[in-house]
Amino acid sequence: MSMKSDAPAEKPRRFRLIFCTALLAVLGLAASGLVERAKSKQELAAWTEDQAIPTVRTVQPQRGPSEEQLSLPGNVKAYYTGSLYARASGYVTAWRKDIGARVKKGEVLAEIAAPDLDQQLVQAKAQLVQLKAQVEQARANADLGQLTDQRTSRLVAKGWSSAQQGDTDRLTAASRLAALDVAKANVEAQQAAVGRLEELTRFKQIVAPFDGVVTARNVDVGDLVNADGKSGKALFQVSDIHEMRIYVNVPQAFLGQMTPGLRASLDLPGQEQSFEATLVSTSNALSEDSRTSLAQLQAANPEGKLWPGAFAEVHFHIPSDQNTLHVPATALIFGSDGMNVAAVGADGRVELKKVGLGRNLGASVEIRSGVSLSDKIIDNPLEMIASGDVVRLAGADAAVATAREARAEARATAARSERMN
């Protein structure tokens, strides 16, 4: 009888045990979900706060090189360039040298036939002969006048001739002497005219003014040329290319380094080799339009590879102060107090530093003061960045991502373990 009564009592107890176990399991899952949700909220808040910190890329100031290169466009000119025009009017009968020909000083380039000039010279010489004859005639008259004056003066002294006759003969002698001087002066003037025409006849030959190369010929046989015709093209152009002049417009910021003797190298399109040049002088004046000054360099040209009128890229080798630091131009911040850079400290906080600028080198600028080699300077900083702001370095992003993935993996592993238990 007791065994039958115990059996029905065990079933409610078993049901209660199963129910409690299920309830505990449900409560455990609920608690686990609540804890997981709380962790997620905390992680979301931490992630949101983490994302609010800007990530920046930093650069460090670099020392300048011992020698800087300043590259500027330049124009190559001949050492001397002579434009030859006609000094005698006439027709070209022949030309002796064509473009590209090397010539010596005094070598004939072309010949001009000038019959009008030849006739003028013949006429001038004939007039010179006439004037010389007039001098002889005037000299004879002057001698006769002096002799007559001497005789008359003796006769007047003895009373054999009147004083009036004496004065007449004396003045006549003086007049004839003056006429002789005039005749001599006319001869000298005519000799000068003949000399001038003889010089002009020499210009019937166009000659090279110096050793060089014929770089232009604008005349042909039969062309009519006019004396002193400088309004048109020159008959010939001769260039001395044993040494070349190179002209460069240098910006105002670099004029302090443009001292005579500064070395430079030239690169020309179509030429594989570079050419050495030396700065000779500057114009000591600035163009108001471009704020540049014209600098002149010279380069030896023994092989004639440098041509007048060529374009050249001029690379100046400028000595540099290695104590001057360089930073990218994109790191500068223009503020109300001048130029600044944003440096990142060891605690990840920003410090704005005022800097003294040197030359603008394009991609980088010289910093005279305000930073050191160990500073971490933010490149491309935000416009609203201020001292005290917290930033994250771009190099730390990978480590942060790795730690975040590790934490996520750890949470997933713990959740799987709890579900299995």
UniProtKB/TrEMBL annotation:
<dbReference type="GO" id="GO:0015562">
    <property type="term" value="F:efflux transmembrane transporter activity"/>
</dbReference>
<dbReference type="Pfam" id="PF25973">
    <property type="entry name" value="BSH_CzcB"/>
</dbReference>
<feature type="coiled-coil region">
    <location>
        <begin position="114"/>
        <end position="141"/>
    </location>
</feature>
<dbReference type="Pfam" id="PF25954">
    <property type="entry name" value="Beta-barrel_RND_2"/>
</dbReference>
<comment type="similarity">
    <text>Belongs to the membrane fusion protein (MFP) (TC 8.A.1) family.</text>
</comment>
<feature type="domain" description="CzcB-like barrel-sandwich hybrid">
    <location>
        <begin position="84"/>
        <end position="240"/>
    </location>
</feature>
<dbReference type="GO" id="GO:1990281">
    <property type="term" value="C:efflux pump complex"/>
</dbReference>
<keyword id="KW-0175">Coiled coil</keyword>
<protein>
    <submittedName>
        <fullName>Efflux transporter, RND family, MFP subunit</fullName>
    </submittedName>
</protein>
<dbReference type="InterPro" id="IPR006143">
    <property type="entry name" value="RND_pump_MFP"/>
</dbReference>
<feature type="domain" description="CusB-like beta-barrel">
    <location>
        <begin position="248"/>
        <end position="317"/>
    </location>
</feature>
<dbReference type="InterPro" id="IPR058647">
    <property type="entry name" value="BSH_CzcB-like"/>
</dbReference>
<dbReference type="InterPro" id="IPR058792">
    <property type="entry name" value="Beta-barrel_RND_2"/>
</dbReference>
